[in-house]
Amino acid sequence: MKVLSKQEVISFQNFSYSYPTKRNVLIDINLKVYKGEVLGIIGPNGAGKSTFCKSLNGLVPHFYGGTVKGNVTVAGMDTLEHTVAELSTKVGIVFQEPENQLSGLALTVEEEVGFGLSMLGFSRELIKERVKEAIEKVGLKGLERRSPFELSGGQQQRLAIATVLAMKPEVMVLDEPVALLDPIGKYEVFSVLKELIKEGSTIIIAEHEIEELAYLTDRILFLKEGKIISLDNSRNVLSEISKLREAGIDPPSITELTYELEKELGIKFDQYPIKLSEAVKLYSEVLKIK
Amino acid sequence: MSSIGTSLLRRSVIIKETLIHKADPRTKFFFFLWISIWAYIFYDYVLTAIFLIGIIILAIIGKILKRILLSVAVTVLPWMAFGVPILSVLFPWNSTLMYKIEIFGWQIPFYYEGFAWGLTWPLRIGVCITSALLFYLTTNPANLIALLFKLKLPFRFIYAFAAAVQLIPLLVDEAGTIYQAQLSRGLRTDVGIIKRIWNFLILIIPLTLSSLTKVQIRAIALESRGFSAPVIKTCPYDIRFKSIDYAFFIGIIMATLIMIYIYIVYGFSPIVHLKQYLISG
Amino acid sequence: MEKGEEKEVIPTGAKILAIVMIPTIAALNYVGGVIVELTKAPIWGDTWATILGTLISGFWVGAIGGFLYNIIMALTLWGLPAWVWGTANVVIALITWFSMKLGWTDLKKPIKLIIPCIIFGFIYPIYTTAVSIFIFGGGPLWKPLPAAVYAAVLASTENFWLANYVQNLVTEIPDKIISFIISLIIVSRIPKKYILVRQRS
């Protein structure tokens, strides 16, 4: 299991939020995220996952207004005291819709990647350097001169990731980044994320793709109706089969299988597997015994 | 996902390597303003026709003659075709008889004032349209955006302009898709006026809804990328004047001096001096 | 902030929503013209989004979006004088705005729609007539029906202004009134969360 750094990057302290038209979207959120950690967020629709993500870069509450209690600190900046523009150098966010989050100003992939940096007034030379680096990281080399609107969904999401990477934020937030993608697009995006995780990036990812989160994340935050149901290492959260089912979330297939087998066979497993390799190992041992 | 949804600029600009293409967009933009204003200063169909011919010559150099001629054929010529006969006969300020034509036993008088009006105004608009096209078709989209930055326009305007020209072909594609979908659901275009208006509605409503959703998402994405940061935005492009631009400006200065001379000596309507020859034949 | 203290935050999103809405209005005006061609609807279809934008986001957004459409058309297709039609879009936005503020935009009360329809159909063309004459010469349009109307009025009244006005009526009455009604219908169908201005009923 990965040893998490002790350097705190994100801190929620008794944070509650209501939109102007919807009360109690997030209720009493307390948590810390550490440098290099990958935190997954799961929950049924309306749980507050997107709101949680947007509260990291100040969109909540600045963009929408509403009422706030408590605070959120990201990379030492209180999100209530800083504008979204100021926070954009600390937190980069990738949204669900690949095409709609394109700036609309950039004529090429290169310009789109450099868009955030242009908005912050960085020099052309620095922008060029960072853009090159970011494009290589997400595997869009060769497509620099293409229009962003000509790319596939997976390519556009990778482009969005590159736009965020170019700004070198301390935290990357992804709000259901593969929800609207085809299987190839999903594969492309998750491949990029795996590389970023290997490099030690701090990532928050809200997703319905539980199977993938099992592989990517260190901890999982389980939200329901704005409240924290569980916040623990991924294995523990994904093993809470009844809680997940109650919330309408499908646990990872192999975890669920093991849970059902446990009941059926009357065997007690020390822990449930959440990855295929773990399941293979576990069942091999069980079958050997049998 | 649109596979051909690119900027209106990229779709329309004719990519070539001519002197006109190489000229700085500021030069071409200035020329477009300059000649359009002169077309309005002079009320003279001969002079205005000369302006138009000048633009056509530049279009030949820029290898965009076909597009320019097409625009003239579609706007200027039909306009003249209606304007000249109607105004030659009916213009309220007609006074100088040119000739009379017999039509079905009627003697229809054709007057000079209406004739001149019917010629001059379409030519003026023709100059404006063709000079705009000359600028637009030979200006690389990146250079157009650079021009907006160089003009020190507020960034929000630059964004709005560039985003609009990017959005237009995307929306057109989306409208096409919605149209095809509705056709397959039985939409017919060979119907009465009320039904046609209804058809307009059933195409425009989903397009509008989709556009409004995109507005929300794009706004938060822009905000997240520092759009509202109170700093001077970096323009990704650089444009510089070249020798062709200086030559062009010298030409414009000389032409301006000539026009000022004409204006002082002959007034805003030099053709008036030639009118008597035209009338007496 | 003290623990437990609830704070009200003023939203800042409206400004950027407006900035993103403006090019959308310009683009929708353009596409309106394209859809008119596809459906052969009897309107120009290139100012309806100005009305819609005003109804959704207020006068400034509608007016600037409409104006931007004309700037783009001036630079790309119609030439310099066409930017003047941008001011016509501002007038359209103004008429829409006042109609909204005075409660004349409620589809459930069709009687109240009569006044803005009269303004759009008969008052607005006074402005377009002035533009047609001073910027475009006031000659007949290059379409047979309006040109025929123009010629008939000019022949019978010898009044240049009246001929232009009646010619404008022929095109503007159907276009503006239909565009106005269409925009009201669209606004009535879209989710309330997209509407940023308070509508008076």
Q: State Rg of chain B.
A: 24 Å
Quote the CATH topology of chain C: Arp2/3 complex 21 kDa subunit ARPC3
Q: What's the end-to-end separation of chain B, in Å?
A: 65 Å
Mean pLDDT of chain C: 89
Topology of helices and strands:
The complex is a heterotrimer of chains A (290), B (281) and C (201).
Chain A: E1 8-19, E2 22-34, E3 38-42, H1 49-56, H2 59-63, E4 66-74, E5 77-78, H3 84-87, E6 91-94, H4 109-113, H5 115-119, H6 124-137, H7 153-166, E7 171-175, H8 183-198, E8 202-206, H9 210-216, E9 219-224, E10 227-233, H10 234-238, H11 241-246, H12 253-265, H13 276-289
Parallel strand pairs in A: 3-8, 3-9, 6-7, 7-8
Antiparallel strand pairs in A: 1-2, 1-4, 4-5, 9-10
Helix pairs in contact in A: 6-7, 7-8
Chain B: H1 8-12, H2 19-22, H3 25-41, H4 45-61, H5 65-90, E1 97-103, E2 106-111, H6 112-137, H7 141-150, H8 155-184, H9 193-224, H10 243-266, H11 272-280
Antiparallel strand pairs in B: 1-2
Helix pairs in contact in B: 3-6, 4-6, 5-6, 8-9
Chain C: E1 6-9, H1 13-39, H2 48-57, H3 59-78, H4 85-101, H5 114-136, H6 144-157, H7 160-189
Helix pairs in contact in C: 1-2, 1-3, 2-3, 2-4, 2-7, 3-4, 4-5, 5-7, 6-7
Q: If you had to describe this structure to a student in words, what would you say it looks like?
A:
The complex is a heterotrimer of chains A (290), B (281) and C (201). By secondary structure, chain A is α/β, with parallel strands linked by helices. Chain A folds into two domains: 8-250, P-loop containing nucleotide triphosphate hydrolases (Rossmann fold), CATH 3.40.50.300; 252-290, no CATH class. Chain A has helices spanning 49-56, 59-63, 84-87, 109-113, 115-119, 124-137, 153-166, 183-198, 210-216, 234-238, 241-246, 253-265, 276-289; strands at 8-19, 22-34, 38-42, 66-74, 77-78, 91-94, 171-175, 202-206, 219-224, 227-233. Chain B has two domains: 1-14 and 141-240, no CATH class; 17-137 and 251-280, no CATH class. Mean pLDDT of chain B is 87; it is low at 1-7. By secondary structure, chain C is mainly alpha-helical. Chain C has a single domain, classed as Arp2/3 complex 21 kDa subunit ARPC3 (Orthogonal Bundle). In chain C, helix 1 packs antiparallel against helix 2, helix 2 runs antiparallel to helix 3 (59-78) and helix 2 (48-57) crosses helix 4. Chains in contact: A-B, A-C, B-C. At the B-C interface, helix 3, helix 5, helix 6, helix 8 and helix 9 of B face helix 1, helix 2, helix 3, helix 6 and helix 7 of C. Strand 4 (66-74) of chain A pairs antiparallel with strand 1 (6-9) of chain C, so a sheet runs across the interface.
